Every structure is written in structure tokens, then in C-alpha cells.
Amino acid sequence: MEPRIEGKTIIITGGSSGIGAAAARDFAKRGANVIITGRSDQTKQLAGEIGCEYHLVDYAKLSSVHEFANTMLANHPKIDVLINNVGGVIADRQLTDDGNEMTFQINHLGGFLLTLLLKDRLEKSAALVINTSSMANNMGKIKLKDLQNEKPYSSMRAYGRAKLMNILHAMEIVNRFENVKAGSFHPGVVSTGFAREGGFLAKLFYNTFLKDLFMISPEKGADTLIWMVTNPDKWKPGEYYHKRKPGKKNSQISDKLAWKLWERSEKLVKGQMVP
Description:
Elements: E1 9-12, H1 18-29, E2 33-38, H2 41-50, E3 53-56, H3 62-75, E4 81-84, H4 102-117, H5 119-124, E5 128-132, H6 155-176, E6 181-186, H7 200-206, H8 210-214, H9 218-221, H10 223-230, E7 240-242, E8 245-246, H11 255-268
Parallel strand pairs: 1-2, 1-4, 2-3, 4-5, 5-6, 6-7
Antiparallel strand pairs: 7-8
């Protein structure tokens, strides 16, 4: 019998569609206090459907992430689970208003900032932090001198680097936060709209009939995430999972790289750390 999560406060960023929405529905049925973020009207629609709290948050603006964190701290004395699920493929290299490359900020830096801003609350709550990564992490190679994907830019390579960062971020949370358990997972090749801003091949597979031939449903994709939340004693801190088992990880992964990435990321969000 799975542990009860009734009454637990669970934040799911990017929770208005795909695996985020599937997990939100599941947790709400189990009696959790679910909070979702998104950018579209789907966010409000899903919140109305399952009776949960919602917030419109734009990860292309770090100030929007900061505002959301402040709202959470003001309204929720306990945060049991933070799921960093925002992500997507961006076809062409473009900069956010914060001056960061879009793929890097949306897939890594925004979630990094949110987690950092909620640090004290997460520690006091003995929380779980779970990052949505991908098997695409194996396509990524992090160059600390080129976190902004300046040259040459490839949408899938940039995405792979960001998914690798999600794993490293979870690893380093375990080292830097007290009383917080963190991990990451690959949901599988899921039929979602996350590649709607991607290049030709990404759109071909994710936005045509091909997705029904080769991809799994968001409900199946959310299975490992739901398992991690409902069975926190069955997985190892800092580990990356696929189908409820340790997944294949990029050979570049190391504690040293995780530490260095954290230090660089913290410098990039420094301006947002002021209350």
C-alpha cells in the first residue's frame, strides 16, 4: 500500500498539460493540496477541473519566478513537494529579457532560482524536490564557459544540456540543503506539446500523427514521478530514474561538475535573490 499524501502541499511547475497535468490529477484524487503553474488558459481550466490552486508564471522572466516564490512563501507555511517540470525545446537561439539563452533559462535557470528562493521553507518541511529530466541528457555536453549556448546553437543539443543540468541540480540539492531529498527522472517519450517551439524534426514527431505511433501517454509518462512522490523511501537521493529504476546517465556527470554548475547558476540569478 502506497503512503498517503492527503493534505500534503505539492507544487508542480509546468503543471497545466502533459505529465505535469497527469500528475496533478493523480495527486488531487489522493487528497493532496496541489498547486500548478503555467502560461496559458489551460492552467486555469485544469485548476477548475481538479479543484487546485494555480498561478500564471513565465519562466522566460526570472522576475515572474521570483514573484511566484514570494507568493508561495506568503501563503504556504509548509511545502512538502516541489516538482520542477517546466521545459521545452526552442528552435532558434534567442535571449530572454534577463539576458540568458532561452533554452537554458526555461529548462534550468528558472527552476534553479525557484528552488533556491524556497530553500528555507523546503528544509523546514523536510521536502522532496524532483526535477523532470530526459534521456536527452545523454546528448548534452556542458561547457561551463558557454552555458548560454552561443556557438554553435542546436535546439536539441541545447535541450540535452539543460536536461543534464536538471540531473546535476538535483544531485547538488542533496549536498547543499538540509533535510531535503532530491532526485530527477525521465518520463519516457511522451505525447505532449513541449516541442511546439522546437525545430522541424521535433515538431514532426511531437505535433503530427507520428506521436501516436511512437509515444506514450502523459499518464504513463507521469508514472515514475508519481512513484517517487508516493514512495520516497524507495529511491536514492540524487539519483536519476526511468521506469522506477536508475536510468542511463551522461558520462560527464560528477559531483565536481554539479558543484561548478551550481556556483555559475547562482551568480546568474544573484540579482533575483534580493527579497
